[in-house]
């Protein structure tokens, strides 16, 4: 008898040496390195090298390569700015990556895949910068070379030099969202690349899956709760009405894999505390989040439901100056690395066309009756 695994839960579709998760103990490692150590001691550039090449770098050559690859075809920038300002941010990213797929007519797998991925990482920064600038009504801008991917990104986004605290927070946020095994978006990317479609098209597929509020959009939905609550004094009443009585889902809580506190959420919470000191609005939302966290843990921890990475990440992004509509795009900027690492690993090491089956439950053989006799 065939067994249907709804949501493909616990179905293993590939082997990987990229990311290890222990959902019971709250452990997350990239290529064997604990996420806490990578955030504390490393940088996003080192994480890019680690995920693509399997080891930590011993030089700054990758950083130099990124600095050389920020330029994107003018047609891609034009396409972003031809769309209305209120266009969806992830929709614009899909448009841009599909544009890159259209323009790179000579793409071939296993020809400098990792170098191509590094180039795409730089170009994705430029794309996200210009999605933000388009939606804010600002002119196009290309990130300028610097000693930090996060610094170049923030400087281009806001047309001003970011503070060391802001650079550090952005850098760590990028590390935290880099990869998480095979969630919906990574699975979508793998399905696309299994057909030997190109990297850009595989990223477009991943972005389409990321867009949903149950995946990449979760940080936006979590932060919208804080906006709705408005004041820390309203948390108790809001929680009792919306979550307990109306049985709505508490966004930013619970995870398909983690049955304890998401280790990324702890770090995002720490990052938020470094940014809110001089931002009264962000500080208010942080206080709301803390109170909401206490109630959530009190009511749901017995079921293995704790804060996930999206609960506090929105406060970090908001404190950096990004509006809510950009949260998922910032997630995508980071996760592009994980998507690329997974599709390269899959195509180069274990390629097979992904083609699952469905269990038919419809009617048995029916006799066709012409329309005149129905």
What does this structure look like?
The protein has 374 residues and is mainly α. It has helices at residues 35-41, 44-53, 61-68, 74-82, 89-103, 113-136, 149-158, 164-176, 184-194, 199-210, 218-229, 235-245, 263-275, 280-300, 310-320, 327-349; strands at 19-22, 27-30, 33-34. The protein has a 3-stranded antiparallel beta sheet with strand order 1-2-3. Strand 2 (27-30) and strand 3 (33-34) form a beta hairpin. Helix 9 crosses helix 16 (327-349). The protein is globular and about 75 Å long. The two termini are 36 Å apart. The mean pLDDT is 94.
**Percentage of residues in strands:** under 5%
- Average pLDDT metric: 94
Q: What general outline do the C-alpha atoms trace?
A: globular
Give helix and strand order, one letter per element, not per position: EEEHHHHHHHHHHHHHHHH
Unreliable residue stretches: none
In short:
With 374 residues, this protein is mostly helical.
Task: Describe the secondary-structure layout.
Layout: E1 19-22, E2 27-30, E3 33-34, H1 35-41, H2 44-53, H3 61-68, H4 74-82, H5 89-103, H6 113-136, H7 149-158, H8 164-176, H9 184-194, H10 199-210, H11 218-229, H12 235-245, H13 263-275, H14 280-300, H15 310-320, H16 327-349
Antiparallel strand pairs: 1-2, 2-3
């Amino acid at each position: 008898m065939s067994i249907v695994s709804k949501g493909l839960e616990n179905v293993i579709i590939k082997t990987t040496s990229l990311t290890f998760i222990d959902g019971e103990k709250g452990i997350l490692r990239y290529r064997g390195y604990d996420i806490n150590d990578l955030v504390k001691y490393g940088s996003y550039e080192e994480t890019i090298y680690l995920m693509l090449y399997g080891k930590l770098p011993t030089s700054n050559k990758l950083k130099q390569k990124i600095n050389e690859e920020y330029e994107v075809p003018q047609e891609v920038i034009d396409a972003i700015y031809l769309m209305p300002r209120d266009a969806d941010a992830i929709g614009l990213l899909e448009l841009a990556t599909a544009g890159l797929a259209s323009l790179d007519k000579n793409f071939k797998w296993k020809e400098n895949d990792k170098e191509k991925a590094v180039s795409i990482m730089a170009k994705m920064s430029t794309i996200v910068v210009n999605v933000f600038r388009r939606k804010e009504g600002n002119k196009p801008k290309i990130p300028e070379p610097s000693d930090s991917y996060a610094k170049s990104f923030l400087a281009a986004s806001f047309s001003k030099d970011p503070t060391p605290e802001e650079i550090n927070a952005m850098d760590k946020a990028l590390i935290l969202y880099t990869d998480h095994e095979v969630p919906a978006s990574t699975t979508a990317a793998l399905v696309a690349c299994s057909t030997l479609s190109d990297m850009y098209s595989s990223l477009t597929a991943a972005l389409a899956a990321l867009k949903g509020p149950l995946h990449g959009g979760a940080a936006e939905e979590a932060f919208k709760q804080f906006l709705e609550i408005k004041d820390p004094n309203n948390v108790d009443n809001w929680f009792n009405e919306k979550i307990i009585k109306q049985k709505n889902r508490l966004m930013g809580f619970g995870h398909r894999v983690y049955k304890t506190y998401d280790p990324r959420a702890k770090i995002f919470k720490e990052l938020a505390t470094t940014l809110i000191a001089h931002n009264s609005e962000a500080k208010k939302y942080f206080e709301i989040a803390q109170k909401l966290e206490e109630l959530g843990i009190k009511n749901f921890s017995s079921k293995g439901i704790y804060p996930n990475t999206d609960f506090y990440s929105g406060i970090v992004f908001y404190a950096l100056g990004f509006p809510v509509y950009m949260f998922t795009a910032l997630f995508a900027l980071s996760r592009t690395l994980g998507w690329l690492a997974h599709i390269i690993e899959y195509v180069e090491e274990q390629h097979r066309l992904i083609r699952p089956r469905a269990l038919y439950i419809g009617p048995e053989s029916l006799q066709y009756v012409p329309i005149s006799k129905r």
